[in-house]
Amino acid sequence: MIGKWKQDTVVIVVRDADDITAALRQALDGASAAERPGLERALALAAEAAATPDAQLRGRWAGSRIRASGHQGPLDAVAAVKALRTAEPGLSLLQAVNLSKDAAAAEAG
């Protein structure tokens, strides 16, 4: 179709925080008093990680790829998009632009 772009997401966020949270809760049920504080803290961290939005996770990933390529400027600059596409050649221009925006937002937040 002319004038329409299909936006595919190449970066898929895989979350296993629910499984980790369930395992920590199970461990907490049978934990001794000495083990409880550490397991409770781990459970809180797992819950925090599970609540992180997908855009922020994509942004962190894209930002790390951009920085690893040597780009030190703004993450949503044209040079950052180029660095990301060089690091990940399978990305389309639109995908790289969107990911660089996610990266800039993640870095700012």
Any descriptors?
single chain; mainly alpha; 0% strand; elongated
pLDDT below 50 for ≥5 consecutive residues: which ranges?
A: none
Structural category is: mainly alpha
Tally of DSSP helical segments: 5
Name the helix and strand elements from N-terminus to C-terminus, one letter apiece: HHHHH
Main sheet makeup: none
Characterise this structure:
- By secondary structure, the chain is an all-alpha fold.
- It has a domain at 54-108.
- It has five helices and no strands.
- Helix 1 packs antiparallel against helix 2 and helix 4 (78-87) packs across helix 5 (93-108).
- It is elongated, with a radius of gyration of 19 Å.
Characterize this entry briefly:
With 109 residues, this protein is mainly alpha-helical. The chain is built from five helices and no strands.
SSE topology:
Blueprint: H1 17-29, H2 36-50, H3 54-68, H4 78-87, H5 93-108
Helix pairs in contact: 1-2, 3-4, 3-5, 4-5
